[in-house]
Design a protein that fits this description.
With about 260 residues, this protein is an alpha/beta fold. It folds into two domains: about 45 residues; about 160 residues. The protein is about 30% helix and about 20% strand. Strands 1, 2, 3, 4, 5, 6, 7, 8, 9 and 10 form a ten-stranded mixed β-sheet that branches. Helix 2 runs antiparallel to helix 3, helix 4 packs across helix 5 and helix 6 packs parallel to helix 7. The longest helix has 11 residues.
Amino acid sequence: MPIPHLPPEIIDYIVDFLHDDQTTLKECCLVSKSCVPRTRRYLFAGIKIRSERDIRLWAKLSQGDENSLARHTRTLSIYCPELVVEADAGEGGWIRAFSNVESLDVNNGAWPDECPLTPFHGVSPSLKSLRVGPIILPSSQLFYLIRSSPLLEDLTVVGDTESSSDEPSVDDNNPHLEAPGVPVISPPFSGSLDFDIYGGMRSTVRQLLDLPNGLRFRKLTFSWDVEEDLRWITDLVMECSDTLEFLYVSHSSRGVFIWHPHPHR
């Protein structure tokens, strides 16, 4: 029986069954247009933007809120963030069409002070997982992004996020930096925190600790090589002591420490 004559709920069942078979899903779209709407949620669930060609393609496909294919994306990985920021400014904010993203990975970029992460601020109210790095950017840039993601649970930072030379330093009288229009919110942070930060994590940790509702991470992972960071790691561990289930600490010369309350489970 030709697929177009099948009831819609049967077509949906077939497409759902094939959700992890990209090749077959594409063939279904060629067989019948009735398969297209359902397959989009799987074909465009995970998107990687690696080049100017990808940027041009998605800037075009992201036009129109109702018909945008970007609204089907749940995992967005960006490997050329500096090009995306530049293109987003020229195309009228196309990156915001990815409004249902739950996991965002901003990777491989060197960020000058004049190139902010503004296009990603509040890009998706559903964002639960954020990975930034390997990257170089002021810690304030990172926190403007964090504070625009009210449901954020998991955070991974790789690179150097200490304050730039033209930012106010973070000290006991200036725990975090404010930005116009960026409210101070406290995401759930009930998942994992993974820091692989060189150059020191003082500025970043101080801003985390200063969030109004505290931290509730269940998993903490740290790779560090600045001696002063031991203090900030300790502060983070103490802050999460009521919820912590796993701790991994690696130092370039001191070795590795792993803590798990149930190592055999």
